């Protein structure tokens, strides 16, 4: 026992004066600290235990899924690794440390989101920063982004840049509020932290007006109705009706609530053209819905003539009898 004690004392003195022993190193509990940033660096207490052993170093080799081996400087974010340190003396491996689990999740921040839109698309441009991965951001080839706009999106194009990216979400509905999300992905998997922005698409062209249905409340009145336009895609919802005769507009009416118009005091038995278009304050519908209609005959004049004719028919015999009676009266005198 005394001999073994003397050997340990000698080994301890050897460590103090810069000479390490592999058997002695195997009994040392080397503390290792998990890295929190990239490029990764595992801190240990080896040189605290052997401050004079400047020839001792630890090189780490890490294995991920599929037993792909990487150095610390090659580790990727959002990936699990088991890293083992090779204790070397003058570049010769003499021992391995206990394996340590390593995973660095970059705290990605989507900043300075610039927005631009058309009436059917939204364009976004952003910058990405990270406190714990800032140095490796331009080198992360597997870092990408998804752009998603709700309530709907049909197509998207994402262009990654070293310090951010751009995207275009197309196939959207005009004059509609959207909530768009820039979602970072790594190896095609969502990673923190998505960023939401609100954007409204531009003014579009209103839907076309439906089929016009004319009616005639009076013989010189034209009433026209049609299905109310559903989508105006703009700030205003106006139905505009023009009544034309001989290519010249005679009357115009607006209705913001429904497609219903009435033109009064028109000429009898006359052909007019009624045209209706939807207008949203910026654009009119592409197609103008039109209908050629004719007012009816002058019923009041006809009735007056009939009344006069009836009176004439009834009164002529009376007048004739009166005339005969008066003639006979004169003869009897």
What does this entry look like structurally?
The protein is of the alpha+beta class and about 325 residues long. The protein folds into 3 domains: about 1-100, no CATH class; about 110-200, Sandwich (Immunoglobulin-like); about 205-325, Immunoglobulins (Immunoglobulin-like, Sandwich), CATH 2.60.40. Helix content is about 15%, strand content about 40%. The strands form 6 sheets. Strands 3, 4, 5, 6 and 7 form a 5-stranded antiparallel sheet that branches. The chain is rod-shaped and about 170 Å long.
Quick gist of this model?
The protein is an alpha+beta fold. The chain has helices spanning 2-16, 22-25, 46-49, 299-332, and strands at residues 32-33, 43-44, 56-63, 69-71, 81-89, 92-96, 100-102, 108-117, 122-130, 143-150, 155-161, 164-170, 177-186, 189-190, 195-200, 213-215, 222-225, 238-245, 248-255, 260-263, 271-279, 289-294.
Strand and helix layout:
Blueprint: H1 2-16, H2 22-25, E1 32-33, E2 43-44, H3 46-49, E3 56-63, E4 69-71, E5 81-89, E6 92-96, E7 100-102, E8 108-117, E9 122-130, E10 143-150, E11 155-161, E12 164-170, E13 177-186, E14 189-190, E15 195-200, E16 213-215, E17 222-225, E18 238-245, E19 248-255, E20 260-263, E21 271-279, E22 289-294, H4 299-332
Antiparallel strand pairs: 1-2, 3-4, 3-5, 5-6, 5-7, 8-9, 9-12, 10-13, 11-12, 13-14, 13-15, 16-17, 17-20, 18-19, 18-21, 21-22
């Amino acid at each position: 026992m005394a001999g073994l004690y003397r050997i340990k004392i000698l080994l301890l003195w050897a460590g103090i004066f810069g000479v390490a022993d592999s058997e002695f190193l195997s009994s040392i509990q080397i503390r290792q600290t998990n890295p929190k940033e990239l490029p990764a660096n595992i801190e240990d207490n080896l040189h605290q235990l052997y401050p004079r052993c400047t020839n001792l170093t630890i090189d780490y080799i890490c294995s991920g899924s599929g037993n792909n081996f990487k150095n610390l400087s090659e580790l990727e974010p959002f990936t699990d690794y088991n890293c083992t340190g090779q204790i070397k003396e003058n570049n010769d491996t003499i021992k391995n440390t206990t394996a340590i689990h390593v995973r660095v999740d970059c705290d990605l921040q989507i900043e300075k989101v610039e927005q631009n839109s058309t009436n059917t698309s939204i364009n976004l441009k952003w910058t990405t920063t990270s406190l714990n991965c800032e140095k490796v951001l331009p080198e992360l080839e597997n870092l990408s982004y998804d752009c998603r706009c709700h309530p709907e999106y049909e197509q998207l194009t994402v262009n990654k840049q070293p310090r951010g990216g751009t995207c275009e979400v197309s196939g959207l509905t005009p004059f509609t509020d959207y909530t768009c999300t820039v979602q970072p992905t790594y190896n095609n998997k969502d990673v923190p932290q998505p960023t939401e922005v609100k954007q409204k698409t531009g003014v579009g062209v209103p839907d076309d007006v439906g089929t016009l249905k004319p009616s005639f409340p009076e013989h010189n009145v034209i009433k026209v109705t049609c299905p109310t336009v559903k989508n105006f895609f703009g700030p205003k919802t106006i139905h505009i009706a023009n009544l034309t005769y001989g290519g010249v507009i005679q009357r115009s009416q607006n209705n913001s609530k429904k497609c219903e118009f009435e033109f009064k005091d028109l000429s009898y038995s006359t052909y007019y053209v009624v045209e209706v278009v939807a207008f949203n304050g910026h654009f009119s519908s592409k197609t103008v819905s039109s209908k050629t209609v004719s007012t009816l005959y002058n019923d009041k004049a006809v009735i007056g003539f009939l009344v006069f004719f009836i009176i004439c028919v009834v009164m002529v015999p009376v007048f004739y009898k009166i005339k005969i009676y008066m003639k006979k009266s004169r003869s009897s005198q």
